[in-house]
Amino acid sequence: MESIKKKIYYHDTDAGGVVYYSNYLKFFEEGRTEYFEKKGIFTEELLKQKIAFVVAKAEIEYKKPLRYKEKFEILTEIERLGNASIVFLHKVMKDETLCCQAKITVVCVNDEMSPVKIPDNIRKILWR
Amino acid sequence: MESIKKKIYYHDTDAGGVVYYSNYLKFFEEGRTEYFEKKGIFTEELLKQKIAFVVAKAEIEYKKPLRYKEKFEILTEIERLGNASIVFLHKVMKDETLCCQAKITVVCVNDEMSPVKIPDNIRKILWR
Amino acid sequence: MESIKKKIYYHDTDAGGVVYYSNYLKFFEEGRTEYFEKKGIFTEELLKQKIAFVVAKAEIEYKKPLRYKEKFEILTEIERLGNASIVFLHKVMKDETLCCQAKITVVCVNDEMSPVKIPDNIRKILWR
Amino acid sequence: MESIKKKIYYHDTDAGGVVYYSNYLKFFEEGRTEYFEKKGIFTEELLKQKIAFVVAKAEIEYKKPLRYKEKFEILTEIERLGNASIVFLHKVMKDETLCCQAKITVVCVNDEMSPVKIPDNIRKILWR
């Protein structure tokens, strides 16, 4: 489980007074990046091996809106590790309140954007 | 079915050379807004009646990435009309290619953010 | 003078109820792109010649905030054509009201990001 | 002088491989907010006094592009304190390299968006 602590600024919000619904996906990107980095996986090094993880699917539930200046936490963990894909589970929490939850499926692709098996060294690290 | 024609600019893209994955949700917002307006429903007038449609759920499938300068179309239709909710089906098409597809559930809420029945006059218009 | 007509959506706004101040720079990017394209200059073709125009300076005056659903126009023209740079003048108008104005200096650079003289064929087209 | 340390994610970048030029203004917003908060000034409390600081002018110089995964610092200080306005000086630094610099003028306005004198208690705090 990887945790990032952040705060809402004006640029995250919309005229409804709450965080704009697409901006949670930016938080989830940050969550996945930090999850990988903590395990020692760097997306820029994967690119040198001509491998990348691209988002194929996102299922997002909006529970409770976040507002300007509120502090929150992005929780990221792996729910399922497939042959060529990973399903991440992301949660945006304000204290004990679940604000937004998402399952995001990333697929391991080669430089022609075709799905390939996740390399064994990466898989081993992710299982740990 | 509502259609909007647009073009990708730099501000839509990321360093991967393609449209950043959260930006499709901005396109879908535009799609829903234009769908409503074509039917004569204006979100700012609903607010005067203390009613709003808020996104509760989004299921997005990323099929084929859009790139800088590409022209595309946002197709929006209603898939399901519930008592208090609407499920929109959005498609982002580049010519005949489906780039991204989403089911987005919006819920009709009052000014305390509690779900309420969609007013009959709105429902009638949406059935047409 | 190049003109683009647009409408404000939620994704353009912030919790202050108005367009977020950085989003005008997205409108100006669209203005410059369409200005170039109308003259037959395509940034992706310049890249093949290993030339690009990059923003070096922006001076923006915020006059009157734009709000949700408002329709506006982005006006773009060239104020000054230098050896290696172009100064664009952008205006965001709501009917007769000037909402935002900017002078944006772009510099012609090679593939090592060093400033180079604007190619003569491009300069001729821009003078027209 | 207020300093914030951050890292570039995909959502900050564009297809040119660098941070999109409008996103620096988001960094500057964060800089100003943290500058104010460190001094004990909270924009949401100013709003209760029907006072707000709105951006009237921005002069930005883009020196060196930031790229994906790069770590950087946002430095914020006050350059000039006027009767009704504050000029902030923001710098985005990557180690010792100045990437972007901006002078951003915010004006103190009342709830009718008319400029008003900065309240004395706020002015005293800012002079410290």
* Count of discrete structural domains of chain A: 1
Strand proportion of chain A, as a percent range, falls in: 35-45%
What is the C-alpha radius of gyration of chain A, as a whole number of Å?
A: 16 Å
What CATH first level of chain A would be assigned? Alpha Beta
Mean pLDDT of chain A: 96
CATH topology of chain A, what is it called? Answer: Thiol Ester Dehydrase, Chain A
CATH architecture of chain A: Roll
The spatial strand order of the largest sheet of chain A comes to 1-3-4-5-2
How many strands in all of chain A?
Answer: 5
Quaternary organization: homotetramer
The helix/strand class of chain A is alpha+beta
| Biggest sheet descriptor of chain A | 5 strands, antiparallel
- What is the CA–CA distance across the termini of chain A? 12 Å
Number of helices of chain A: 3
Written description of the protein model:
The structure is a homotetramer of 128-residue chains. With 128 residues, chain A is α+β, with helices and mostly antiparallel strands. Chain A has a single domain, classed as Hotdog Thioesterase (Thiol Ester Dehydrase, Chain A, Roll), CATH 3.10.129.10. In chain A, strands 1-3-4-5-2 form a five-stranded antiparallel sheet. Chain A is elongated. The N and C termini of chain A lie close together (12 Å). The mean pLDDT of chain A is 96. Chains in contact: A-B, A-C, A-D, B-C, B-D, C-D. At the A-B interface, helix 1 and strand 2 of A face helix 1 and strand 2 of B.
